[in-house]
Amino acid sequence: MDTETQLVEENPRKGGLRTMPFIIVNESFERVASYGLQANLIIYLMTFYNMTAATGTSILGIWTALSNGLAIVGAIISDSYCGRFKAVAIGSISTLIGMIILWLTAMIPQLKSLPCPQFQHVCNGTTAFQLAVLFSSFGFMSVGAGFIRPCSIIFGVDQLEKKGKPENKRLVDSYFNWYYASIGVSTILAVTTVVYIQERYGWKVGLGIPVILMFLSVSMFLIGSPWYIKVKAKESLLIGLLQAVVAAFRKRNTRLPLTDCDDYYRWPLESEVLTPSNDLRCLNRACMIEDPQRDLNPDGSASNPWNLSSLEQVESLKAIVRVLPMWSTGFMIYVTMNQFSFSVLQAKTMDRHIIPQFELPAASFSVFMIFALTIWITFYDRVLVPLLSKYTGRPRGLSPVTRMGIGLLVSCMSMALSAITESIRKQKAIEEGHEDDPHALVNMSAMWLVPQYLLLGVAEAAHAVGQIEFFYSLFPKSMSSIASAMYTIGTAVSSLVGSILVSGVDWLTSTGGKTSWLSSNINKGHLDYYFWLLAFLSLLNFFYFVMVCRLYETGNDGSSRLSHVAEDKECDYRLLSES
Fold first, then answer.
1. Hey, which residues does 353 pair with through a beta bridge?
2. Across-strand partners of 359?
3. DSSP state letter for 533
4. Is 334 within 8 Å of 467 (Cβ atoms)?
5. Residue 182: how many other CB atoms lie within 10 Å
6. Per mean pLDDT, which of 208-212, 312-316, 353-357, 472-476 is the most reliable?
7. Which pTM was predicted?
8. Among 95, 148, 281, 480, which has the highest number of CB atoms less than 10 A from its own CB?
9. Which tens digit of pLDDT belongs to each residue from 294-332?
10. What is the CB neighbour count within 10 angstroms for residue 414?
């Protein structure tokens, strides 16, 4: 009997629907607080830390990469050591500490530099201590996100999944619907209401609101502690994959045959995998038994899992290696979506009035991307799938790979449209005599920016769901959570690549005393050139995607052919990354 079942039977009054308000409120408030900070933070960094637009964007990109990357670490620690309850609790408290530190930078003048206008555009330097305080707040929030986001949703499942009660399957499905609905509402509130408060009432109030929300989030989660089912930690699948890599490396010089060998380690003994696959045969060394007396315990288990992995672990590792080329094609689309900081600067110089009495905050335009993403997923699932399935013969309409390609092309179109819009905006700014004043309003509606956000939303919806389904169709059921992990790692890598790209473009285009393309004065810079560069790189990435598709089609091993990928298993939407 597994640990989860023991816990449920020993504590029949724990878990269930009574715990859902605590978990969902915890996640919702954390989302509102976190996204409310991130959306508008580029303005705070440029105003009170005198950072250039390029530097601020690079720092925010590194912060996003760290938060997503630590999600994998948090998942491993929660699965293998502390359990999900402690992981969410530690993450929530860490996030609260980070937000308090960031709020203190707004409250205490000594923790930030004075804005440039007070020195007649001669900026005073930011001290190392001030930057250390700022970065420590980012660090605490990254650690918090790394623990909360991979564990919160599954912790909710722990409260509802009770063996012997099949009716709980409906409760779990309902929970997922409410959970993701709360995330959507929280994100919209964050990029609208919280951002509006920051612009209307200033940063002292604007950064204080997330602190209050996060305090409520921590409090609600801890109050529900007596009623939670707390599943104990067990071995992590990610640790098992790492053990297979180490075991194969340690046995790289082994002289055992790589084929036609029956001495493979299987655990548990009733394994369904009979023989290892023929591709990536070098990894088969990891599950080869060299000396049964040394390698195995009396019960048949491996004496040292870092020297001997099971055949299942090796095949799982091979499944990941097979999808790496296709996984890498998704980096560029998330690089393009990490350029919101520059779009915020664009919107700040444009007329943002929706009606004469209301002006939409510059950082709130990303809400149009969220609307487009949500509407597209619903429209495709409910309208297009029934129509397309009649013509394609596929239960999911278009294949996962086709949808991924559509997403890549639409993201390329979005960057091209962004470049055209920026060139028009800059030309108007110059004609109106605002070249030397980056804060002047241009006689141009900010609604011109909406189409590029809509296209990015459709691009992410098409690509993200297609990519998850692609992984889901290749991986065995036991590896379904790895699909979400790879998506998260991909966004982390993309954020890091985007940060490096911004820094590189800023450095290269400012050599010789020239004005950088990514100048803080976007009326003097060439932000349109940068968007054209992203469009060109996105187009190159699409051609790379086509090459990878052909590589899968022409593979010698049937396991890596695209026809196997196109089985059209329905995507388990709970695998979609919460970030």
1. 359
2. 353
3. H
4. no
5. 18
6. 208-212
7. 0.83
8. 148
9. 878 887 778 888 888 888 888 888 888 888 999 999 999
10. 27
Q: Is 383 exposed, middle or buried (0-12, 13-18, 19+ CB in 10 A)?
A: exposed
pLDDT digits (tens, 9 = 90+) for 443-468: 999 999 999 999 999 998 889 888 87
How crowded is the C-beta side of 559, counted as CA atoms within 13 Å? 16
Q: Which of 92, 102, 133, 287 is nearest to 198 (CA)?
A: 102
Residue 319's contacts (CB-CB under 8 Å, 6 or more residues apart) are: 474, 475, 476, 479
Report the C-alpha gap between 223 and 221 in whole angstroms.
6
Identify the three-state secondary structure at position 264.
strand
Cβ pair 251, 304 in contact under 8 A: no
Write the CB contacts of 134 (distance below 8 Å, at least 6 apart in sequence): 49, 102, 105, 111, 112
The residue to which tokens 């960031």 are assigned: 102
Residue whose pair of structure tokens reads 């580029």 in the numeric block: 42
| Encoded amino acid at 304, one letter | N
Are the C-beta atoms of residues 70 and 213 closer than 8 Å to each other? no
DSSP secondary structure string, 311-322? HHHHHHHHHHHH
* Distances, alpha carbon 255 to alpha carbons 102, 263, 264, 265, in Å: 58, 13, 15, 17
Give every CB contact of residue 36 below 8 A, 6+ residues apart in sequence: 189, 190, 191, 193, 194, 195, 198, 209, 210, 213
Q: Can you tell me the distance from the alpha carbon of 17 to that of 172, in angstroms, rounded to the nearest whole number?
A: 10
CB 347 within 8 A of CB 365: yes
Dihedrals phi, psi of 302, to nearest 5 degrees = -70, 135
Element (H, E) at 354: strand 353-355
Average pLDDT for 432-453: 91
Structure tokens at 447: 């609604």
Are the CB atoms for 148 and 142 separated by under 8 Å?
A: no
First-to-last alpha carbon distance for the chain, in angstroms, is: 34
Looking at residue 124, the DSSP 8-state letter turns out to be P
- Residue 343 near residue 415, CB atoms below 8 Å: no
CB 89 within 8 A of CB 141: no
Which residues, in sequence order, are CB contacts of 290 under 8 Å at separation 6+?
A: 251, 254, 256
**Euclidean distance between CA atoms 529 and 518, whole angstroms:** 9
Q: Give 364's DSSP letter.
A: G
State pLDDT tens for residues 364-394: 998 999 889 888 888 888 888 888 888 877 7
Contact (CB, 8 A) for 101 and 133: yes
Choose the weakest-confidence range: 56-60, 290-294, 481-485, 513-517: 481-485
Q: Are 551 and 325 in contact (CB under 8 A)?
A: yes
